[in-house]
Amino acid sequence: MTDYLARLNSEQRDAVQTLDGPLLVLAGAGTGKTRVLTTRFAHILLSGRASPGQVLAVTFTNKAAREMRERVSAILGRPVEGLWLGTFHALCARMLRRHAGLAGLSANFTILDSDDQLRLLRQIMDAERLDTKRWAPPALMAVIQRWKDRGLTPGRITASDDTDFAAGRARVLYAAYQERLRALNAADFGDLLLHMTDILRSHNDVLAQYHRMFRYVLVDEYQDTNLVQYLWLRLLAQGHRNICCVGDDDQSIYSWRGAEVENILRFEKDFEGAKIIRLEANYRSTAPILAAASGLIAHNESRLGKTLRPGRDDAQTGEAVTVVGLWDSDEEARMVGERVEALRRDGHPLGEMAILVRAGFQTRAFEERLILIGVPYRVIGGLRFYERQEIRDAVAYMRATLQPADDLAFERIVNVPRRGVGEAALRALHETARAEGLPLAAAAQNLIDAGGLRGRVKESMGELLRGFARWREMADRDGHVVATATMLDESGYMEMWKQDKSPEAPGRLDNLKELVRALSEFETLAGFLDHVSLVMENDEDAAGDRVSLMTLHAAKGLEFDTVFLPGWEEGVFPNQRALDEGGVKSLEEERRLAYVGLTRARRRAIVSHAANRRIYANWQTSIPSRFIDELPSEHVTQEGSAALARDARIATATSFPSQFPLVARRVRTVEVWEQPVRPARSEAIPVGARVFHQKFGYGTVRAAEDDRLDIAFDKAGEKRVLDRFVERA
Prior knowledge:
single chain; alpha/beta; Rossmann fold; Arc Repressor Mutant, subunit A; nine-stranded mixed β-sheet; six-stranded parallel β-sheet
């Protein structure tokens, strides 16, 4: 047995040496899938089954492709040239330049980036006289990308595939967009796969050429393929049928970007006589962590099935998964910070600790806690909370409201959302400001008064300036929290992201609401802005020893000695929006995401949940995630107040009937717009009284408890608010 095979266990060796026919390698977390894939590649070359140019190896990232090339070269003992190794897009671009004429392009076609795509779509929508405020170009781009991910050219879209975007005109706009791309001799990233798949389906001679060229096809992360990638692979594998796909159905967590877990589940049906090899020896985590993760994922029905076991002798024992129940989300952040500090004192490197959250907005509480206690951290897979575009924009609105002379803030948001303020208007603003020695906002008012701005620009600029004055007055009267929430609504900024149909838009809205929640911790807007400035000074030295903070999606492929998994509550995780949109299918993906989180931990996994969570500016009673129930009790240690979880379940049992497992475990939201300097009311407001609230409008008091009122608002529905924030109507 050669050295490179001797380093493999029996399952891995079987996967490497099974060279004839279709093979699916179900590689569980930490089972050495990369080693198997690269060793198989090298084994094909060393055994003389194929030359380097006769193996098509597909990855999802350039990093994975580089790693595979380096490992194959290391096994062979020499650099390997002439490989068809790369990402789906890179390989399809290489193919398409050979056959560009069949797609109506020339070989030197340009590949457009997302900015160019949006600009082109905007031109097409303008030509069709569509209102781009109502029908946003990013939304159309998302629709077209979904069609391309499914291998649908304009002519292949059926009524069931169509959408009501732009009153049903999306298909026409798509066709116009594709024609315009051809006229420009250009393609977007979606076209690379779409055109090549269409060429392979329509031109048997081209397909036969690639059947002769490629004797073997190797595919990494098969569970993350979308439909057009699946179609492309299936077409290419019809020749020798020597296709090997490596993946894990239990780690398919990217449906939001088009991944289809069904691709891996139906492998045996697509390739008759296929062999399945399961890699179940995990070389990362301890036995209790693996048992807990396996017990959790076993609740999914749509899976091929496997059970992880420790692959190392020293991993046969270890700490049970710790589940910590806490009173509220603030205590949860303190608990994580204290445990990080305790582990650090015991010699645990910060770089081997990670905090994994379900949604990006959850990072803020942990970022601020780590800064407060002086623990360095890094955010992986995204920006720090206050560096995100939507947060910077919102903070600019706050600065422009608080300080009318802040030209940098004013210039950032004067045309966000779009108000028709183009380069000419901005130039006029700057010239007036310099000539009269005024801030930009004051110069804008002078231009309006003097007739220097006309039409839409005059109207929208005047509305913005009046808004600043109104929000400043509201901050003094009703508090900075209410004023900021109102500002984000009335400025159209929240609506801009609501209309955006990109996958990132819901997360941006969550971040903005979390920002409003953060405001309630400060007495004034000025105090909050000072805090933001100090937070942004936190040094981001990526090379230092730091705690890693990221979403569960960003954590896939990573591993740490200690993993904190906060926010395991219904509505947070599993995510309520996902359940509402996808039902059982989304629930299973959320469970796979929990499985991914647990299996990132080598030695220690700490799950936490809070009985009360302040989501945005509101306190919400929470109950533990159903995923906690699904962890095998013999591999879990409960800490904190178990009674909190029990009481929460009893309190919300009526809203979560067992026969409707996907119905949200909904609880009453307590609206508390906190403003410490607002005085308490001297006279109680009686039940039945009509009242007015600055944000929610008119309503009727239904119940009263101390200084809190349950009010049925005419338009905003039922909410609980402090009596000091309402007036008798």
